Amino acid sequence: MKEVLETCESRMEKSVSALDTEYGALRTGRASAALFDKIKVDYYGQETPLSQVASISVPEARLVVIQPWDKGLLAPIERAILKSELSLNPNNDGKLLRINFPPLTEQRRKELAKQAKQISEQYKVAVRNIRRDSIDELKKMQKSSDISEDEQKDGESKIQKMTDSYIQMITDLASEKEKEILEI
């Protein structure tokens, strides 16, 4: 039974961690280096993550500076950013790229907040599915007489408490992200 609980908790932790990572890539009114995590650059015929060919810094709340280690990569990095779904315009000064983040419109902020809420709901469903799988595993163990009925009920109650805790973490992350998106 212990391994079922440990597996359940580990999977729920991974779900919350994945949500946090996904929220990091969701654009808000503030500049963030995490927004560029999914961008790949053509590096001598090889699709390479941007973070492996350049340094990305955020000197101000609405500015990102990207400095490639090889100056020949300025144009490919600029193209990759323009092609991305970020809708950003990099300024190339021959040495580095500066990207200004314009303030989001109120309508766009509301859309992003709604999107953040939908993403959190998907992760809540994932946590509930993990709960269901774990409880099913306990029921199988009880049927095969590996654990007693009391142990099964105790395990189910522990799994439910764990689920409630992780659902609350997801709700907290979602409300923080929504607040961050909606602030001007």
What is the helix content?
55-70%
| Gyration radius, rounded | 22 Å
By helix and strand content, what is the structural category?
A: alpha+beta
Low-pLDDT ranges: none
Report how far apart the termini are: 49 Å
The overall pLDDT, averaged over residues, is: 89
Shape: elongated
The biggest sheet, with number of strands, parallel, antiparallel or mixed sense and barrel status, is: 4 strands, antiparallel
SSE sequence, one letter per element: HEEEEHEEHH
What is the helix tally? 4
Tell me the strand order in the biggest sheet: 3-4-6-5
In total, the number of strands is 6
SS strand fraction: 15-25%
Distinctive features:
single chain; 184 residues; alpha+beta; four-stranded antiparallel β-sheet; two-stranded antiparallel sheet; 4 helices; 6 strands; 57% helix; 15% strand
Structure commentary:
The protein is an alpha+beta fold and 184 residues long. Helices cover 57% and strands 15% of the residues. It contains 4 helices and 6 strands, in the order αββββαββαα. The chain has helices spanning 2-24, 74-83, 106-143, 149-182, and strands spanning 40-43, 46-49, 54-60, 63-68, 90-92, 97-100. The strands form 2 sheets. A 4-stranded antiparallel beta sheet has the order 3-4-6-5, covered by helices on one side. Strands 1-2 form a two-stranded antiparallel sheet. Helix 1 packs parallel to helix 4. The N and C termini lie far apart (49 Å). The model has no long low-confidence stretch (mean pLDDT 89).
